[in-house]
Every structure is written in C-alpha cells, then in structure tokens.
Amino acid sequence: MLHENKQGMPLVSVIIPTYNYALYIGDAIESVLRQDYPKTQIEIIVYDDGSVDNTKSIVSNYKDSCNIRYYFQKNKGKAYATQQAITLCNGNYIFNLDADDYYLPDKISKTVAVFESDKNIVHVASAATLVNRIGAVISKEKISKAVLNKPINGTELLHYFLSENILFGGGSTYAARSSVLKKINIPAEIDMYIDEFLLYAVLLHGKSFFIENSLSIWRVHGNNFSVLQSSQQRNIARQERSIGSSAILLKYLNENNFSNYIVRVYAIKHANREMAFKESLGTKNISDILKYLIRIIKLKPSPKIVKRYNIFNRLMPLKLLNGLKYLKGYKKARMDNLPAISE
C-alpha cells in the first residue's frame, strides 16, 4: 500500500546505519532536510550500532525539525543494523545513507520519479562524487553509458558487472523499492559486504536504473573502514572478516535463484580474494596455487574473465609475482621522473 500525501507524493524512508560517526552524521541528516522533496514525506531512521561517542545527542537535536527516529543496539555489525532499520521503514522507497556521506538536494525527488515511472524498477542509483574531509572534490565515479538512463534487467546488469569486474550502485547511491527489500533476509555474517549484498539481492527481483548525474557524495577520510590504515594485526583481522563476508555472499548466491554464470564468476572473485589475502601475508605456496588452479578449471572461465580477474597473476609463485610488481613499480617511477621532452 502506498503512503502518500494529498499531492500524491509517496513517503520515503532514509536509513542511516552508524557507528561512531558523530563528527559527520549531522551533515548526513542536514542533507536530507535540504531535499527539494516534501519534508513531511520523508522519514529518517538512524540505527546506531553501539556508538560510544555523542551520536545520540547529535541526532536528538533534530527531533523537533523532522520525522527522525533513533535506535541503539549493542555492537552487532552494520549488516544487522541495516536489517533492523529496514524492518522499521514505512516508506514506499528505502534510501541508504552512510553516516559520513550526504545527498545533493535533488537526490530523493529524481530517484522517486524513476521508481514511479515503472513499477518493475526495484533499484535506482547514480554515480557518486568523492570529496575529502573538507568537502573538496577528489573525483567522480564514471559509469558506463551502456547502463545509464534506462531500465535494465537486474540479472543482465549483474552479468555485466561481473563480466567487467566492476560494481556501482551501492552504499549511499543505493535506493530500493520497499516492497522488495523488506522481503530480503540479510545474514548478519555478511558484515563487510553489506553494500554488495543489498545490490545483488534486490537486482534478482526486477530492473535497475542509473541516473546520469551524481546525486550522492561519498566523503573519503582517514576513518573510512575501507581506507583505514591500521596495525598489521588489525589489518589481518579486517581481511579475514572480508573473506568471511565474501564467502557468505557466495553461499547466498548458491542458495537462491541466481544464474549459473553469476555464481561461477562470483566464485572466481571469491577465490581471488582468498589468494590475494595469502599473498598479502606472504604465505602463498605451490599447494595453494594448485588448489586454486583446480577450482578455476572447474569454474570454466572465458578468456575475458581470465583477463579481467588477473587469474594468471594468482597462479604465479609469490617470489615471481613480487618481482614483477617491483619491476612494474620501478618502471613507473622511472617514467614519472623522466624530463619533459622539448620540441
């Protein structure tokens, strides 16, 4: 059932899963309040995954200026927090907003217009603009024109993503049809791959649409989980969590109605992540290479997939691979230091 106001504008839900982002969450909320969409038709759900900073007090400052609800849980991970936030949504469409990111003013209105144009569209996204800590633009995502400004079958889109070894449309660019997203059970163990999981899971059920203009801002800073530089021990633990999350997503793909192609190529992606982890530890050996080779042969990758996923690199002994990396880095350094050629 649609939740609409007198002007026929559907209610939307913006979920903000957060953990110790009091420094940025005000900007995230403010960006929702600045939308050119009726404020009465936006609900904000902040789901706090056990923050020990002053996140709660920051959020409480907005309780009289918008429809915002705050929930707190003991630290159980972003995937669990996201699942709980989704169950609390009343909107027709659910927007994800990471607590350290923010929206441009027409994010919601343009996204809703796409959803309303075709009931078979279950996912709408756009490119993201990356900014630094003070808001200066670093870069913008470049999404292939082949997928822009048109409805695309979700399974076909996943085939394209996997064939090219790319992925767009998750994180703070992500919005989904509530009636579909609420039916999806998110494994708490999906952990570090929650954004990827949400994209795969919803695309199984309908069409996707990518808006050409950037509508979401991704803030890159020293505390981003994806760019966090930590001690060796913490970094190893993070990589182990990543491998475990990847395994859970592969299991989900196997147990649901995803095409054989999607499962096979994602299995290659997962095998690569495991090998890359061993390489980072310096423990990859001949036995690992042989086991990897057997797995890959069974998955029957095409020549394009072999190239896109650098399978030959994964088959190299560690000393040879490190030697090639050194030579590549040395060559680049030499090229960077060459004097300009004058005419």
UniProtKB/TrEMBL annotation:
SUPFAM superfamilies in the record: Nucleotide-diphospho-sugar transferases
GO-annotated molecular function: hexosyltransferase activity
Ranges where the Glycosyltransferase 2-like domain occurs: 13-127
Keywords from the named record: Transferase
Name of the protein this chain belongs to: Glycosyltransferase involved in cell wall bisynthesis
Organism, as annotated: Parafilimonas terrae
